[in-house]
Every structure is written in structure tokens, then in C-alpha cells.
């Protein structure tokens, strides 16, 4: 089996996890910029973080024959402070040309506030100005439905946004149709305690189709499982899906989306 | 899909069984400790009728019932986390 882990926060994971991913067939990881578990005090902290995911993390992944790609932004959990958010956004253009940067993300909303929405809008404009793809985080739990609607509206307000170059991640059964009906890609995140289980992710493939979707572990410093995508593959096999179907969902689909940026080249 | 149809009840029944019993035990536990008047418990119980529905789409409807249904962005938030059900203030 071969697969791509299209959403993983590897800066929070051990080298043993890289080994486990490689042994499970992972060929590439995709690392959106995220919240480190605490609020950073200055844009300098983000500058160092962007260096880490553009310079250091690809080397760590390469030791396990895994290609590493990343996305840049200030995540919505820290964008309530609009002054800090704008300082961080001002340094992103310095990194966009790095070899492994595929776009702007994971932008989005957290508690659906006006400041978060303002910074989301400015990130969308940043992506448009620099002709970048977009990877979107949708809020957690009770905030997801409302946040997804606000995000879809914000994206659709820009006529220059091509939905086929935007993935809206962490969809669940109640939000997947909102995203897919507008032509956006949808990401399903497999978490042990929230978001979706491998069973439900495969259910969603049956309900909404297997075009323009990917599955990811979004493994980070919290409760998460870097091998959740292979576990969803096992669930597909149990239900009788063949190798070509599985390959499309966990390898060809993420490769198709990320491959819209010419910098994405699987070694 | 292969021609041979997988028995999904064989595959999922024990998992569903233990989750159902776990929910029942959770309700017993919070009753026993006088903590059942929490808004999250009310929201959870409000979704139970969907389990008895014969109409497909139960998961999406349960998620809807556990979601904030307001539509306008809020002015500000003094928390970063979420709790699994809309608070009475939302």
C-alpha cells in the first residue's frame, strides 16, 4: 500500500512516528501551519516556526524516505489578535517561494468571531495576491456548522477563487455537503475522540462519493493517531473495496490536489 | 467493491453495543453524582430520538442538534476551546 498523509503536524511528533508512517507506506506528508498549543507572543516566534517547517522538517522526513510539504499562515486560534496576525502575514511572502511550500493554510475560523473572520478574509486575499492554493481549518464541535457556513461564504465572495484549488478540512456528515456542493475539496480528519472515526470516514465516501476528498490524521500534540489513515484503509478492505479504489482515496486524490502546485513532486 | 457482500452487522455490532452500554453507564454515573443538570447532558439527551429514527441521515442530524445554529459572527470570544454542545448563552 502507498499513501499520502495530507495533514500532519510533524513538528509535534517523534522520529518514531516518521518510522511508523514510512513502514505503513506513507510517501509524503503535508504540514499546514497550526497552533502550537499555546499563543505565541510575537511574529518572531512564527518566523522561527516557518523556518522549522520549510528547512528542518523536510530533512527529518527525508531520513525516512518521506517527502515533506507545508502551508503557511497564522492559525485562527491566534488570529483574534489582529495586530499580531497582520505582522505574521507580512512575513509569509518571504517564505512562499520555499521549495516545499504549497499554499496558505490552515486558515479558517475557531470561535467564529469577527476578528477571526477579518483575518480569514485577509489570508484569502494574500493567497489571491500570490496565486496560492488554500487549505482551510473548520472549527471544532458545536462551532463547526456555523463556521463552515461562514468560511464557504467568505470564499465564495471572491470571484477569483477557484474552488478546485481550495480544500476545506475537518468536514463531518453535517458539513461535507456544504463544502462539496460548492466545488471545494473536502478533508476528513480521523481522530480518536472528535471529528470522524475511520468507520464514519468510509461511510462518508459511500454517502458523498470519493472524488475531491482526502483523509488525514491531523496528528499533533493532542489526542491523535498518526496511523489513522492506514486504519481507514483496513476498514475499506473489510467492506470489500479493492486496491484501485483505496489507492485513489489515500494516494491519487491528495496527489491530485497538491499536484496543482508544480512544486509538488513525489520522489 | 468485491462481489462478496460484507456483513456489516458482524463487523460493527459489538462496537455499537459497547458504545450504547457506555452511554447508559455515563447517564447512570452522572445521576449517581448529581451532575445530570449540565447543558451538555441535555443536548445529548435531545439527540437520542434520532437513534430511533428510521430515516437515514441520523449522524448528520445528531451533529446538527449538537451545533450552534446561530449565523452571525460573534463580537469576541474569551475562550479558545469548544465543549461539544452549544452553551445556553449561544
Written account of the structure:
By secondary structure, chain A is of the alpha/beta class. Chain A has one domain (3-258): Metal-dependent hydrolases (TIM Barrel), CATH 3.20.20. Chain A is built from 9 helices and 8 strands. Chain A has helices at 15-23, 43-62, 82-91, 114-129, 144-156, 176-180, 198-208, 228-238, 243-258, and strands spanning 3-5, 26-32, 67-72, 101-108, 133-137, 166-168, 185-189, 213-216. In chain A, strands 1-2-3-4-5-6-7-8 form an 8-stranded parallel beta sheet. In chain A, strand 4, helix 4 (114-129) and strand 5 (133-137) form a beta-alpha-beta unit. The longest helix of chain A has 20 residues, at 43-62. The radius of gyration of chain A is 17 Å and the shape is globular. The relative contact order of chain A is 0.15. By secondary structure, chain B is mainly α. Chain B has a domain at 9-64. Chain B has 3 helices and no strands. Chain B has helices at residues 8-32, 39-47, 58-65. The mean pLDDT of chain B is 94. Chains A and B meet through helix 4, helix 5 and helix 7 of A and helix 1 and helix 3 of B.
Which tags fit this structure?
heterodimer; A: 267 residues; alpha/beta; TIM Barrel; eight-stranded parallel sheet; 9 helices; 15% strand; globular; B: 90 residues; mainly alpha; 3 helices; extended
Structural classification of chain B: mainly alpha
How many strands, what sense, and barrel or not for the largest sheet of chain A?
A: 8 strands, parallel
Report the sheet-strand fraction of chain A. Answer: 15-25%
- Structural class by secondary-structure content of chain A: alpha/beta
**Largest β-sheet summary of chain B:** none
What's the total number of strands of chain A?
8
Q: Which regions of chain B are unreliable across 5 or more consecutive residues at pLDDT < 50?
A: none
Strand adjacency order, main sheet of chain A? 1-2-3-4-5-6-7-8
Give the overall average pLDDT of chain B.
94
Low-confidence stretches of chain A: none
Gap from first CA to last CA of chain A: 16 Å
User: How widely separated are the two ends of chain B?
Assistant: 44 Å
* CATH homologous superfamily placement of chain A: Metal-dependent hydrolases
Beta-strand content estimate of chain B: under 5%
CATH topology of chain A: TIM Barrel
Amino acid at each position: 500500500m502507498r499513501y499520502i498523509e495530507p495533514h500532519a503536524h510533524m513538528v509535534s511528533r517523534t522520529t518514531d512516528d516518521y518510522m511508523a508512517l514510512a513502514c505503513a507506506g506513507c510517501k509524503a506528508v503535508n504540514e499546514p501551519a497550526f497552533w502550537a498549543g499555546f499563543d505565541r507572543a510575537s511574529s518572531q516566534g512564527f518566523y522561527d516556526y516557518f523556518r522549522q517547517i520549510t528547512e528542518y522538517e523536510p530533512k527529518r522526513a527525508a531520513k525516512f524516505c518521506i517527502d515533506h510539504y507545508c502551508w503557511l499562515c497564522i492559525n485562527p486560534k491566534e488570529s483574534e489578535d489582529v495586530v499580531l496576525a497582520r505582522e505574521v502575514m507580512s512575513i509569509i511572502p518571504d517564505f512562499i517561494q520555499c521549495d516545499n511550500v504549497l499554499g496558505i493554510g490552515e486558515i479558517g475560523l475557531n470561535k467564529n468571531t469577527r476578528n477571526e473572520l477579518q483575518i480569514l478574509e485577509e489570508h484569502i486575499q494574500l493567497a489571491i495576491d500570490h496565486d496560492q492554493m488554500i487549505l482551510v481549518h473548520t472549527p471544532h464541535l458545536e462551532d463547526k456548522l456555523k463556521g463552515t457556513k461562514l468560511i464557504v461564504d467568505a470564499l465564495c465572495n471572491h470571484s477569483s477563487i477557484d474552488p478546485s484549488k481550495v480544500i476545506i478540512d475537518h468536514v463531518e456528515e453535517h458539513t461535507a455537503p456544504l463544502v462539496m456542493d460548492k466545488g471545494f475539496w473536502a478533508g476528513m480528519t480521523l481522530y480518536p475522540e472528535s471529528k470522524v472515526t475511520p468507520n464514519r470516514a468510509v461511510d462518508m465516501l459511500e454517502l458523498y462519493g470519493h472524488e475531491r476528498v482526502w483523509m488525514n490524521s491531523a496528528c499533533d500534540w493532542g489526542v491523535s493517531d498518526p496511523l489513522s489513515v492506514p486504519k481507514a484503509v483496513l476498514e475499506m478492505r473489510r467492506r470489500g473495496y479493492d486496491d484501485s479504489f483505496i489507492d485513489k482515496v489515500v494516494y491519487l486524490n491528495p496527489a491530485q490536489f497538491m499536484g496543482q502546485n508544480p512544486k509538488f513532486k513525489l520522489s | 467493491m468485491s462481489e462478496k457482500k460484507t456483513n456489516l452487522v458482524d463487523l460493527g455490532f459489538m462496537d455499537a453495543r459497547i458504545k450504547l452500554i457506555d452511554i447508559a453507564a455515563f447517564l447512570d454515573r452522572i445521576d449517581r453524582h448529581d451532575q445530570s443538570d449540565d447543558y451538555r447532558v441535555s443536548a445529548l439527551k435531545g439527540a437520542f430520538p434520532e437513534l430511533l429514527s428510521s430515516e437515514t441521515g441520523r449522524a448528520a442530524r445528531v451533529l446538527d442538534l449538537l451545533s450552534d445554529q446561530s449565523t452571525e459572527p460573534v463580537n469576541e470570544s474569551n475562550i479558545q476551546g469548544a465543549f461539544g454542545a452549544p452553551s445556553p448563552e449561544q
